[in-house]
Amino acid sequence: GDSVTQMEGPVTLSEEAFLTINCTYTATGYPSLFWYVQYPGEGLQLLLKATKADDKGSNKGFEATYRKETTSFHLEKGSVQVSDSAVYFCALSMKTSYDKVIFGPGTSLSVIP
Amino acid sequence: SQTIHQWPATLVQPVGSPLSLECTVEGTSNPNLYWYRQAAGRGLQLLFYSVGIGQISSEVPQNLSASRPQDRQFILSSKKLLLSDSGFYLCAWSVWESSGTYNEQFFGPGTRLTVL
After folding, report:
1. From the centroid of its chain, how far is CA B1?
2. Which of A5, A42, A7, A57 is nearest to A27 (CA)?
3. What does residue A79 show for φ and ψ, rounded to 5 degrees?
4. Chain A closest CA to B90's CA: distance in Å?
5. Which of A76-80, B29-33, B100-104 comes out lowest in average pLDDT?
6. Is the minimum CB–CB distance between B77 and chain A shorter than 8 Å?
7. Cβ contact (<8 Å) for A95 and B104?
């Protein structure tokens, strides 16, 4: 079945370091891909999305490119801040009437000053 | 604009007691509604989803149930709570993007449930 795999955390970085969180997916067909962020004690918020191959989603300095050939959607940020500390979830949505979103297990990021 | 409400925000209940968590959505019609559970330090577990009034699909067999009495209201219930029911419960809604290319979910603030 459809699935999303993320790199295991927790990830700890110093402020201004470069961030990469790997995400790969398995899907029959061409999904839409998302990154959600969950700050401590809160619900999830959509961070960015890409709906077709080679699309680049971007928001708040974060970027991810939909790579169909490698079935990947890695999240990157050039310079992280303490306020980026959160759990990041990669997810996919298929164009079916079933209407579910498949989430990865989440990657916890801690940024230290 | 659309908003989603969940209450209560936090709840402490004894084992064996009943549960009712409520979720309501404003500013949209005929949304898909979802209940997720997130155990401490873990990922999201989809519990139930609904594509319309009275239509409930269960993902995980357990002692929880869900109901959708109105278009924008989704309720999670239990007759007798277990210790393992502790967690962070998230409600979400979605509608298909207008071109039909993706399903984006919007999450509520969550309910922190502790069963003692």
Report:
1. 21
2. A5
3. -150, 105
4. 7
5. B100-104
6. no
7. no
**Cβ distance of A34 and B104 shorter than 8 Å:** yes
Q: What average pLDDT is seen over chain B?
A: 89
Chain A contact present for B1, CB below 8 A = no
Contact B49 A106 (CB under 8 A): no
Residue of A4, A34, A3, A7 lying closest to A107 (CA atoms): A7
- What are the pLDDT digits (tens) for B66-101? 999 999 999 999 999 999 999 999 999 987 666 655
Question: Residue B27 corresponds to which tokens in the numbers above?
Answer: 């500013």
Tokens of B44: 């999201």
**Reported confidence tier of residue A107, pLDDT bands at 50, 70, 90:** very high
In the block, tokens 């398995």 appear at A26
Give the helix ranges, DSSP H, for B22-116: none
Kindly tell me if the per-residue pLDDT of A68 is higher than 90. Answer: yes
Whether A12 contacts chain B with CB within 8 A:
no
Beta carbons of A45 and B42 less than 8 Å apart: no
| Tokens, residue B103 | 């399903």
Sign of CA dihedral A38, B57, B102, A52: positive
Whose tokens are 């399903």? That residue is B103
CB A60 within 8 A of CB A39: no
